[in-house]
Every structure is written in C-alpha cells, then in structure tokens.
Amino acid sequence: SGIMSLLLSKSSTYGLRAALYIATSGNGDYLPVRKIADDLDISFHFLAKILQTLTQCEILKAFRGPNGGVTLARPASDIHISEIVNALEGPKHFDRCVMGLPSCGEGRPCPLHERWLHTQSEIRQLFEGTTLADQAKRIKEMDLRLN
What we know:
By secondary structure, the chain is mainly alpha-helical. Helix content is 53%, strand content 5%. It is built from seven helices and two strands, in the order H-H-H-H-E-E-H-H-H. The protein has a two-stranded antiparallel ribbon with strand order 1-2. A hairpin with a 5-residue loop joins strand 1 (60-63) and strand 2. 22% of the residues are buried. The mean pLDDT is 86.
C-alpha cells in the first residue's frame, strides 16, 4: 500500500501479508495454503509459488498431505521483514535505481539518486529492524485487517 507498492512487487506484498497472517493466526499449526489464499483474496497458484520460495529460504516450513499446509520455520520474533523481501525480490533489490535506469550509479547518478540513497537506507533499516512478531503485535493491538 502507498509507497510500499512502488518499492515492492506483488510477490513481496503478498508474501509479507501471508507471513503476517500465519504469525497472527497460526499458533504454530500448519495452515492450508487454500485457506490463506481465500482469506487474503490472493490467487491460490500465485500464493503457492510465493510460499514455496519462502519455504526454500527456510522462512516457512511446509507439510504435505491432506492435513498439510505451512507454518513459520522459526519464531516470528526471529524473522525480519527484510528476509522475506530479500527472498522474494533478491538481496540487491534496494540497490536498484528508483527510476529503473540501468546506467544509474555513483559515476552517473540519475536526478533522484542522492535523495533515493538516503530513503533507501532508511527503508532497509526499517525492514531489518522489524520482525514478524513486531508487526503481528501491532496488527492485533490496532485490529488491522490483512485482507
């Protein structure tokens, strides 16, 4: 939402919402991917791919079979928002030019380069300093909706 949708792909925003959904309603149980997709109004196949990536990156654990689903691979307090974004966007995501110019860099900065570097650094710190547990707590306290 807002600036985040400019900075993050749909994969990342859905991945974050799904991880928060699991953190706020999972209680350590395996939640069916179909239920998460339905509750968050996300395409099942698209979400399944995202959750598969998060499982490969050891952020989630998956359990196959009729009672299968996904759960957090470790406590929500040990999973930082940055890990989810890095898993789905790649670790160099925030190093890219905000205007998408491939030649932009220190040597040939685009008009927004200097200001973006500052913002980029703040966003990176925010994501690295925020855990799923922090976010889940705020969501519960403020009664925010994930869907």
